[in-house]
Structures are given as C-alpha cells and as structure tokens.
Amino acid sequence: MTELEALVGLNMTLDIGSARLERLLDYFQKPENILKAHPDKLKSVAGIGSEIACKITSIKKEDLNKEFALTKKYGLKILTQNDKDYPQSLKEIAGSPIVLYVKGEFREQDKFSLAVVGSRRPSFYGREMAEKFSAELAVRGFTIVSGMARGIDTYAHRGALKQRGRTIAVMGSGFGRIYPAENKELVEEVASSGVVVSEFPIATEPFKQNFPRRNRIISGLSKGVLVVEAAKNSGALITADFALEQGREVFALPGKVDSGNSFGTNMLIKQGAKIVCNIEDVLEELGLEIALGRNLSGEDGLNSAEVKNLNPRELLLYRLLSREPLLLDEIVQETGMDIPEIFSLLLKLQMKRLIKQLPGNQFRRNENE
C-alpha cells in the first residue's frame, strides 16, 4: 500500500483531519502503518476512540481500488499536503484537509483569492451585486472562491467566468454527487479555466453537516471573505467566522434594514467587518496592488478596444507597464508570476502591438498607447 492510498483510506473515514493524523503519525510514523494497526493500538492515540478505530480498520483494499477507479472516471487528481500543487494557504489553517480531490489546475495567481459568499435564496439586488463584484475582482486579477451552491455562490462563479477570470469552487459533496444537480454544467465551466475541489470521497452525499466543514476551505483559500447577503443563521456567517479564526479579512455588503437577507451582513458590519460599497473598498483594506493599475478610471490607454478584449492576466500585466521601461526581473517581482507565464503574456501583448520589448529584457507600452 502506498502513502497516497493510505491517506485516501484515512480520509474516507470522514473523521481524520490534520490534527488527528499528526497524532497518529507521531505513533505509527507512516500512514500505511495506521491502516495496518490493531484497534487497541489505534485507541491508545489521543482522540482516537473505539468508533474511529473501527472505521480505520474497516477500510479494505477493494474500497481503495473503487475510489481510485472513480477518480480516473471523473478525471480528477488527488492532492495531499506533500504535493507541490496543494495550496500553501490551506496548509496553514487549523484542520487543513489531508486529501483534496481536484478537477482543474491550481495556479500561482490563486494566492490572490477572495471568497464571495451569501444566501442560497438571494434577492435580485444580491444576485446582481455578487456577479458585479466578482466580475470586477476577476478583472483586477483576483481568483474568486465560492461554494458552488445555489444563489450567491453560483452568481459569484458566473461573474468571474464572464470576464474570463479564474474561479475556485469548493463543494460540500463528492464529485459523484454534485450538488445542486443543475450546477453540473457549471462545474465543468469552472474546471476548464479554474478549479473545482472537494475533500469528500467521491460518492459522498451532500449531507447538511458537510457544508459548515466545507466553509473553512473556502475562507482558507482566500485573502478575505465578502458576504453579499446572509440571513440570521446563514452558512455564509459560518464562513465569516472561519475567516476571522484564520486571520482573514471579512467584508460585508450593506443591505436594507427590513430585509431578512440583510440581517447577517448588517450584523457583520456592526461587529467590525469592512463595509463594501465599491471595489476600491476591498483593494484598500487588503493593501494589495493586485490590479497593479496606475489609473483605473479609463485613462492611459485603458479604453482602447484592444485593451478591453484582454483577459485578466494580460490586463494585469498591461496595467503594470507604462511608457517607462521595466526590467523582466521587476515584472516577476511585482506580479508573482513565473517566468514562462510572463513571457507568454508579454508575447501576446507584443503581437497585439500594445507593448514593445527593448534591449536588456526591458518592456514598455507602445508610444501610441
């Protein structure tokens, strides 16, 4: 049995998180040894009682074979914390997932992520604002994170996709039980240009208790959480609580005082969440120059047809450049992108005659821009 198989098996119990795994590894050294252990030895580890020990010993090789067959069927990858593609931000939270099922690709730019969450039964205003803010954030280089649920989550994902931006969907069920069912097509759309992720085994149903657990991943992947609409006992408020515990920023969109969907957001604002009326409120609070824009008002060539048709990553790089030459090393430092991606984007911008390369790996905007 491999380490990956053992970790997948432990994850299938749904009771082993990073804290319990760490205690088990202190005793058994390797994940493979945990699955081979006698129940009495398992129970000697703090936090592992008879029920969990029984679940661990009941995992069979045929169960693992079935799980890996389903992984292949659905075109998924399984990431553990030892994989380089496992998000660093998730490693740093309490209760980080020991296994992630992934459809799509994580990228370096995803470290600049913001969660947009809210009610499953939003108002027209809530739907409009979720899509609008997500679209504007995507254009400025943010990856939009949400939970693939009905309502605000769906509009958040769609807002990013409309701008050809990146979005990450964190599900509260397995890939074999996509919920809600009408979002199966959205899962494929998100995966084609972003990531769909779940910590749950593939056949896991969308049980009610899964969603609060999922919410810690949504906030864990993000620099902050924007709550658009939330009723009194909304799951979005649980995500906001996780964000605070994880040291993330919490933003809230104000709403009508007599609307049930505004109760949660208005309460968050009273408790100190950053009130958001426009996109600059988010950028200012995070203190991140993700847009790298010297002027977002439409000046400096940003209204030309060519520029309006740029995708978010091309626009991010274009906004960084001016008529003053910039060295390649400076571009790398400012954007955090890797060199192959930068070269690819620079080449596309040159082909569109928006920028020019100078001797010594220097780049600037064209004079007519």
Supply database-style keywords.
single chain; 369 residues; alpha/beta; DNA polymerase, domain 1; Rossmann fold; Arc Repressor Mutant, subunit A; three-stranded antiparallel sheet; 18 helices; 45% helix
Brief synopsis:
The protein is of the alpha/beta class.
Mean pLDDT: 90
Query: Which parts are unreliable, with pLDDT below 50 for 5 consecutive residues or more?
Result: 289-301
Structural class: alpha/beta
Shape descriptor reads globular
* Largest sheet strand order: 1-2-6-5-4-3-7-8-9
N-to-C order of helices and strands: HHHHHHEHEEHEHEHEHEHEHEHHHEHHEE
What distance separates the N and C termini? Answer: 60 Å
**Biggest sheet descriptor:** 9 strands, mixed
Care to describe what's here?
This protein is α/β, with parallel strands linked by helices and 369 residues long. The protein folds into three domains: 3-73, DNA polymerase, domain 1, CATH 1.10.150; 103-286, Rossmann fold (3-Layer(aba) Sandwich); 305-365, Arc Repressor Mutant, subunit A (Orthogonal Bundle). It has 18 helices and twelve strands. It has a nine-stranded mixed beta sheet, sandwiched between helices. A three-stranded antiparallel beta sheet has the order 10-12-11. Helix 10 links the parallel strand 5 (167-170) and strand 6. The protein is globular. The N and C termini lie far apart (60 Å).
